[in-house]
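Good morning,

Attaching, inline, the backbone tokens for the sequence recovery test we're adding to the shared suite. The designed sequence is right after.
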């Protein structure tokens, strides 16, 4: 299960993340600006542009099949399998080969996972059919906002202290209807070589927990190519998407479903956060050849 460590040597591990001090995301471009940026990128890398266009065509084709079917299932009041299929097939179209290790809990579960990129939703959602809790910054992208809402994504604003109660109530309501919900409690993306601090307030929805609910820690462990595609530093979402879609070949994401545990009886949200993080850190260390993950 664990992979042999490679350079850099343990003394230099983990390599520093890119400095994003003072980074302010650029505003979402309008159609004209987006088209100009796309044409410039194509001119700079014609071979990569061909891969972007090809993979994007696959994604649009998958969406053309799955989205109408999903809406029909929902309109009929049935549980739709199409969101999960869209995520799984979309990951494959992007060149991601997903391998499952361990067994996911099938219902009444909160998946708690480490976070490398926006592709984590494709990887984890394609395996489990879970709904997600996401930062509200994603909601400013019209197409992505639409796809997220089709899968019942809850958008939260960590800076909205007055709205915490409302956000927790929305997450509880979603869990009651979907029975599976995924959190990325780092609140930002790492590079798969470390584990960022967990945001304990995200666990407030589990104090007290819904009846019968459990937590299942999850480790998303990518090969070196996948780690190098992590969305970190001052890179924009559009630039990261181009880098992922334009690269040749495939890369592997291994999803480790760890031992679930009940949140009932835990002292508080900090205790829940610490227990989940310790389990994820231990398995992530194994995947990195025993290098410590703090």
């Amino acid at each position: 299960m664990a992979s042999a460590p490679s350079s850099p040597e343990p003394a230099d591990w983990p390599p520093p993340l890119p400095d994003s001090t003072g980074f302010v995301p650029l505003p979402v471009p309008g159609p004209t600006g987006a088209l100009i940026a796309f044409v410039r990128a194509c001119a700079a890398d014609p071979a990569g542009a061909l891969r972007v266009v090809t993979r994007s065509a696959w994604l649009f084709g998958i969406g053309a099949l799955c989205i109408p079917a999903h809406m029909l299932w929902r309109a009929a009041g049935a549980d739709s399998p199409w969101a999960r299929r869209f995520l799984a097939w979309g990951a494959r179209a992007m060149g991601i080969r997903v391998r499952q290790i361990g067994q996911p809990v099938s219902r009444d579960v909160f998946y708690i996972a480490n976070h490398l990129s926006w592709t984590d939703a494709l990887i984890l959602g394609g395996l489990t059919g879970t709904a997600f809790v996401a930062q509200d910054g994603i909601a400013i992208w019209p197409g992505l906002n639409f796809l997220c809402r089709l899968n019942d994504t809850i958008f939260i604003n960590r800076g909205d202290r007055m709205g915490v109660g409302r956000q927790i109530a929305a997450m509880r309501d979603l869990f009651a209807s979907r029975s599976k919900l995924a959190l990325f409690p780092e609140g930002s993306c790492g590079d798969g070589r470390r584990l960022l601090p967990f945001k304990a307030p995200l666990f407030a929805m589990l104090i007290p927990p819904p009846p019968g609910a459990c937590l299942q820690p999850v480790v998303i462990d990518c090969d070196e190519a996948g780690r190098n595609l992590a969305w970190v530093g001052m890179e924009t979402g559009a630039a990261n998407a181009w880098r992922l879609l334009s690269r040749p070949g495939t890369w592997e994401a291994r999803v480790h479903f760890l031992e679930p545990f009940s949140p009932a009886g835990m002292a508080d949200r900090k205790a829940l956060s610490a227990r989940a993080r310790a389990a994820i850190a231990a398995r992530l260390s194994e995947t990195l050849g025993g290098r410590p993950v703090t």
